[in-house]
Write a structure and sequence with these properties.
By secondary structure, the chain is of the alpha/beta class. It folds into 2 domains: 403 residues, 3-Layer(aba) Sandwich (Aspartate Aminotransferase, domain 2), CATH 3.40.640.10; 26 residues, no CATH class. It contains 12 helices and 14 strands. Strands 1-9-8-5-4-2-3-13 form an 8-stranded mixed sheet, with helices on both faces. A hairpin with a 2-residue loop joins strand 6 and strand 7. Helix 1 runs antiparallel to helix 2.
Length: 438
């Protein structure tokens, strides 16, 4: 049998297996656990995964190249660099900005990076891991994004960058942030891991800063299982990111290729002997944070579904918002910037003070009824044990950050939630509020 016929037979069997084992899982009200997020896929992803496995290339190859090209095209950026997670993407973004090749623009130990404390840890950790100092500002309740009007007063002579996530898919005040960054010659890194498909003033988030990051963990807008990406319009930054990702090497040859620079044995770098193999010359203290082609193969198919995923998130958010609007006396519902068009990661809710119940009580009720809830990541990361001996600076107080740590939670809006599940979630909110009044 021809190879192509064998592949066709294998792929047909994969589709059959998907239909038997993965498709049409039944929802049973009150029994089926409703996650805050999860994978949404069909046999196309499974076939693509098997296709890459049959190649047995294993490391990044044709699927990774295809994904990088198509993802950059989707967002409208020049470059996409795949990595093994969104957390690694954040680490690579900050690490790249420490490169000596950036001259006076490089981030040096002791330099400050403006951010917020109610973040996922790996938005903050790369600052510390690169011997930089995070400067924490408070957030606005409702948007859960940085108080942008306080950024400029937080800038010191040591401030060199701004590193912010669009919280739960809700774009921060990009116009204000970029104006301040340009005025003070600061780097801007957008953590877009929770916000793929969000727009600001008609343009995708993740395309405003010097570097932006994405995550393809199963909870996010699309998945590779694990996986992440960085995008940039700056060719030098692309080279630096790839260097830090690929052991810190100076060479930029793709796997399986040699002598792309045509100077493999004719350079003298560092104090190495002339002609030392360029494939083994290192210009940075780097990592190995590459992705496999099998992960990228899943991503290629997920990317085709991304527009429908984005729309589903918007529709599910709208359904919940309209249903809970009558309870604004009890809940602070989400707010957005006028120019923002979020692709929501979750639906954030803050319980108001003195309304007869607490955040913990309604979370307990929802969880008992099989509805998953989540806190806003670290809440206030400076209060965690890992920060006991960390150098950081706070500009102003973090009172709103502490409020959301105590009073805020969020629920899912991911595409796996259909009308039946959304109706059940809303019904349980209504029941809780009715019992409260009774």
């Amino acid at each position: 049998m021809e190879n192509k016929d064998l592949k066709k037979e294998i792929f047909n069997l994969v589709s059959e297996y998907y239909r038997e084992k993965h498709k049409n899982k039944q929802f049973i009200s009150g029994e089926t656990y409703l996650s805050y997020a999860g994978r949404v896929y069909d046999d196309k992803e499974m076939i693509s995964l098997v296709d890459s496995a049959l190649d047995f290339w294993l490391t990044a190859g044709r699927f990774a190249n295809q994904f990088e090209e198509e993802f950059a095209k989707f967002l409208g950026t020049k470059h996409c660099i795949l990595t093994n997670s969104g957390s690694s993407a954040n680490l690579l973004a900050i690490s790249a900005l420490t490169s000596p090749k950036l001259g006076e623009k490089r981030l040096k130990p002791g330099d400050e990076v403006i951010t917020i404390a109610c973040a996922f840890p790996t938005t903050v950790n790369p600052i510390i891991q690169n011997n930089l100092v995070p400067v924490f500002l408070d957030i606005d309740i409702g948007t859960y994004n940085i108080q942008a009007d306080k950024i400029e007063s937080a800038i010191s002579e040591k401030t060199k960058a701004i590193f912010l996530a669009h919280t739960l898919g809700n774009p921060f005040d990009i116009k204000k942030v970029m104006e301040i960054a340009q005025k003070h010659n600061l780097w801007v890194v957008e953590d877009n891991c929770d916000s793929l498909g969000s727009k600001y003033n008609g343009k995708y988030t993740g395309t405003f800063g010097h570097i932006a990051t994405s995550s393809f963990f199963p909870a996010h807008h699309m998945t590779m299982g694990e996986g992440g990406a960085l995008v940039t319009n700056d060719s030098q930054l692309k080279r630096l990111i790839k260097s830090f990702r690929d052991w810190g090497r100076d060479c930029w040859c793709e796997p399986g290729h040699d002598n792309t620079c045509n100077k493999r044995f004719s350079q003298k770098l560092g104090t190495l002997p002339y002609g030392y193999d360029h494939k083994y010359i290192y210009s940075h203290i780097g990592y190995n944070l590459k992705i496999t082609d099998m992960q990228a193969a899943i991503g290629v198919e997920q990317l085709k579904k991304l527009p429908s995923f984005i729309q589903a998130r918007k529709d599910n958010y709208k359904r919940i918002y309209e249903s809970l609007k009558k309870y604004e006396k009890y809940f602070i519902l989400p707010k957005t910037e006028p120019e923002a068009e979020p692709s929501w990661f979750g639906f954030p809710i803050t319980v108001r003070k003195d309304v007869g119940f607490t955040r913990d009580e309604i979370v307990k009720y929802l969880e008992e009824n099989k509805i998953a809830t989540r806190m806003l990541f670290a809440g206030n990361i400076t209060r965690h044990p890992c920060f006991e001996n960390i150098k950081y600076r706070t500009h102003g107080d973090l009172s709103n950050t502490d409020t959301i740590m105590k009073d805020m939670f969020w629920i899912g809006v991911y595409p796996g939630l259909k009308e039946e599940q959304l109706s059940y979630i809303i019904e349980k909110f209504f029941t809780f509020m009715k019992n409260l009044k009774d």
